[in-house]
What does this fold into?
Amino acid sequence: MAKNKMITVIIPVYNVERFLPQCLDSVLSQSYRDFELLLILDGPTDGSGEICEEYALKDERTRIIKKEHGGVSSARNAGIREARGKYLFFLDSDDYCAPKMLEVLLKNALDNKADISCCNYYFDEEDGLRTLPLFPDGSKFKELSSREALENGFSQLGFFAWNKIFIRRIFDGIKFPEGQLYEDISAVSKAFLAADKIVACDEPLYYYNRKNLQSITKKGFSVKKLDYFKASGEILAEAQEVKDFRLVKLIKRERAYHITGFCRQMSISGFNDKAIIEPMIKELRKNILLHLTSGRKLSNKLFACALCVSWNLPFWIYSKLFGKYGI
It folds into this structure.
């Protein structure tokens, strides 16, 4: 295998034997062939390691890196250290990608001299595939500045690491925060700010698996989920510092939405730590008008209003009136 490749594909692997073959098949069948595949075995305890060994024997582009379990950020950081490619692509081991994903993303990056190249994606759900337009104005392709990318990160473009390729040098000074949820927000927002140009195409080329009920982001409430506010708070502080008031408004609106969602989960699970809840409700009250003028569901907005009145009121409303809407 040649020492250097154009793209390094980094896949953290931990207890995903059910989905892993589809993920690996989707990578190794890419129309673009000049890549290396790094499988970061993050201490799996199921058959994931054996599956990786089998695939490594079949394709010389595959390298296996073993480490003690430290979480997805730790695994990605290990992959970055070992990467030989000019570009990095982070793929989650329970997801998969279209055969031409690397080809399209790389072409868009090279043709436009972009540091980051992004694409749209599908939600792979129990009842089929679903996607949304990448841009509200219906554009199929855009060149974005760092600040435009930050704004779009709070919509369909997302701060996900997995629907993008990044030029390797961007991560010389950036790491995924270890031991923290919503790690993509912190790392990708910093990557946006470090990039000279970002491009994005509306073609869905990534398949985000929402059928894996063991995924951290799909479980019920956990205090760790409040890491979202730390990650988004970093972007908010930066936006306030440079007086980007449009971005400040957008972030505050999104934080209000997440406060509503997390409080719903808290009420269902019986979580009642006032030291955590009261500052969240206080922030929600300050930004309730931003939330009410967003495009979110009416049921979610009504739940937010109830939260602003009383913490005890939303649980009754949710259980009696709005539970069937899945707010």
